[in-house]
Structures are given as C-alpha cells and as structure tokens.
Amino acid sequence: MWSRLLALALLVLPTPALAGVKEKVAALAPSAVVLVVDAAGKELVAQNADEPFVPASVAKIVTAWLAIEVLGADYRFETRFYLDDKRVLYVRGGGDPFLISEELAPLAKDLVAKIGKAPITGIVVDGSYYPSDLRIPGIEDDVIAYDALNSALAVNFNTVYAVRSGAKVRSAETQTPITPLAIALFRAKGPDGEGRISLGQDPAVGLQYAGELIGAFIERAGGAVHGKVSVGTVPDGLEPIYVHRQSRPLSEIIAQLLLDSNNFTANQIFLEIGARRLGGPVSLEKSLKVANETFAAHGLADAFHLEEGSGISRDDRFTARGLAKVLELFAPHADLLHGHDGGLNKTGTMDGVRTLAGYADTSGHGRVHFVISLAGDDSEMRYRVLGAIESEL
What we know:
This protein is an alpha+beta fold. The protein has helices spanning about 1-10, 15-30, 60-70, 100-115, 180-190, 205-220, 250-260, 265-280, 285-295, 320-330, 380-390; strands at about 35, 45, 80-85, 90, 120-125, 160-165, 170, 195-200, 230, 240-245, 305, 315-320, 345-350, 355-360, 365-375.
C-alpha cells in the first residue's frame, strides 16, 4: 500500500527540469500567462493559465483553424463576371481576400479570351455579397492600411500603394496600374513620398477602385473599356460568362496571413466561414454563430469570446487552455506558421499587449505547443520566455 502511494507521489512531483523551467519563467515574467503542453496533452508549465487574456493577432491562429475546419484547406474563393447584350461587364465579388495585381493580370487575360476584344461599354461592380453597413469591431475610420474595409470585391487588400510628389502620383508597383480614383485619393490622403493607404470606410469607394483596376488590367490584356465604372447589381437571369477561381488554395492564403498578419485577410476568411455554412450574404453574426458552434463541438464553449477574426478588437478574450487545445487540433497544419524568429509561431501586438503562441521543439519533450501573454510593451520578453522554455525542456 505504502509503496503504491509513494509511487503516486513521485509521479505528481515536478521533475528537476520542469521545476527549473517554471522558476525561470516566473523570474522572467511573473505576471505573464504561460502554458506549455506536450503532444500527449500533459501540461509542462502552467502559470496564471486560468486568466483570460487579449489575444491580439494570435487570434489569427484560431481563425485559420476554423477556416480549415469549415471550408477545407483546398477551398478557393470565386469572382464571377457577366456580360449583357450591350457589352456591359458585371463583376460580382465573392469576398476573395487575394485579388492582388499578380492575380488580376492572368484573370484579365482569361477574361478577355472569354469576352473578346470588342470594347466593353461599362463595368458594373456588384458588392452585394457583403452588406453595405458591415463594420468590424476595432477597425477605425482612417487611412492606415491595417484598417482597410472588408468588402465583397476588394483589390490589393482595399489599399493603394503609390508615390506622391506634390500633385503628381504614380504607382509604387510596376505590376499595378494607377487609376483616376487612386490618384485622387492619394492626393487627398496619401503621404508625400512612398506609402500605402486604405481606401477608407465607404464601401462604394473600394468597389469603384476595384472596377477601375480591373478595367486597367483588361486593357493591359488587349481588351478595351470605353464606358464608366459604376456600382450596382447583376441583372436577374444573366449567367456568368467567366468564373475566376483564386489561384491560391485557402492553405496558401492562410500561410501568408499568418506571416503578414493582415487584418483584412483574416476577416475576409472569417466572414466566409459563416456565409459558406449558413448562406450569403456574409455577416459577423453568422460567422460568430458558426465559430461558437465549432468551439462547443470541441468542448471549448467557454474558452473563447470572439468579436471578429483578426484580433484587432480589444474585446476578444481567450483562455490559454482553449488556445492550447486549438494548437493541438491545428498541429497537422503547423507548417503554415512562420514566425519572425523563424519558428512555428505567431505574435500578437497592440498597446499594452504582447502575445506569442505556436509550437516549439524541445530535446526532452519533443514538440510542445505553447501560449504566452504579457501585459506591457516589451516585445522581446515573450521571446525570452520562449527561449527559457526551449532551453530548459
């Protein structure tokens, strides 16, 4: 009897290595939330692990996991094109987050092959897949690129990258034509010199710019556009002449999202989760419903409070154990993470918040998954805590 009790007591006592890493983490950041879990689900370090925290951009890991759960890693966004008998081109956006110039060039070539080189008499942009009053909590009405408006049809992340010298404005990218609206916006809001600005919070502005840029790429591809660009809807009964499927599968878009931490991309993906499961148009309510149902299905109903999918809202709240469980579930896709330190991790940064979560390879416990959250503005401390975990385990 006593021998069995002694064996049990020895099992629950921390090994010297675990005691050492806990002491080191506590010495570095005693108020930090830190949780380290091995592949078998054993908690190796648990410091302040029951305190909910503001995730900032590590929320994008959860959005990535939800997207693969609901949409699938091979999912591709679509944009539809229609042509009426007057050669008016209608473009219906499907929420593609990666309609960048490098995607628009081959798109335009394929489109011109379908519609021919006779002049288009106008372009009508249909953004009805997204409600016009959609607003993401935490996004502010300014020209900062990370505050770009989410939209059914947005090009280059609903931003303009240009160079301004007085009244003169030119594109800062050889692959991106400059358009009349881009020039006007950059004259009004862009910095002198090179910079990237968002198109603001008026959905019609972003849709107008998307139409102008698509028209410019059509002309580069050998087509002709003689009419104006306007915002409207596709007429009932008109069938698409061309459906463009994004060249990148969702897994590639997620890898880029986790590297660049683009808030616009994160919420485009998050909004698609709800619309795909519950039908369009998109809404935050639909996506939050699907997210909460998915959490509940994995026993995580109380682990997350989401307001949106990027982490830009300060009202987002995670638990360390909830995020650690998502990291366990996301482990087959761990290679989609590419941290600034070269590791399989993701940072989150906002005033007074520094977070880091992901996977680390240790000599004694193999690959572990970890969550680190600190109050304050010391960006390097999270890496020092991670370094202690990696060196001691």
